[in-house]
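ComF family protein (Metabacillus bambusae), 229 aa
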Amino acid sequence: MICLICNEEIAAQASWTSLLLPPENAACDECYQALKKITGATCPSCCRPQETKALCIDCQRWEDDPMWKNILHKNISVFEYNDAVKEVLATFKFRGDAALVNVFQKDFLGIYKNQISSLNIDYAVPIPLSKERLYERGFNQAKLLADFIPIPQLEVLQRTHHEKQSKKSRLERLTASNVFSLTDSSKINNRSFLLIDDIYTTGSTLRHAAKLLIQNGAASVSSLTLIRS
């Protein structure tokens, strides 16, 4: 077994189980331990690590705005954004190594089972890429992550603008037109949705997607992201 991050051989202890079953780990211990999982107190809305369990300043500002209040029920993320995960994410997304998604399968599924499954979600909705970005990359990382969780997927969103929201000021993000449009609204009414994406940075992308679903009759929208920046 080769570590998908450093490409070195993973040393495994021999046992009857290891002879009969394939190894679970897609990364060696050194590489895996460098990926810092989110633990301890977090913002209850966006999962930002912090010392208290109160809403963080950014989420409070979202909720204080009547246009965005109660749009996104909550976001859950798995890993903090550190140098190790930054490098893996760059290789995964921008250097076209789709196989790296397997490094995250166990933890992504585990967070879903422990913190999301009780929300009674009807559909997972992977955040789409623009046609140009999908062509360049060859895969949608959000779709690969969504494939790990055992709920039906509904690909009802399409991206109509591919400028990165993180490059905009907060005012620009708040006043920008929605970067998504709907391809089908027939299964949205009174359903609960889980948006899937690789990273939560400002929350703007996820809230734009959630707002479109809420405006078209969704009962609630939450999100599951791999990384909290």
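Residues 83-94 form the longest helix (12 residues). The CA atoms of residues 149 and 223 lie 13 Å apart. ok done for today
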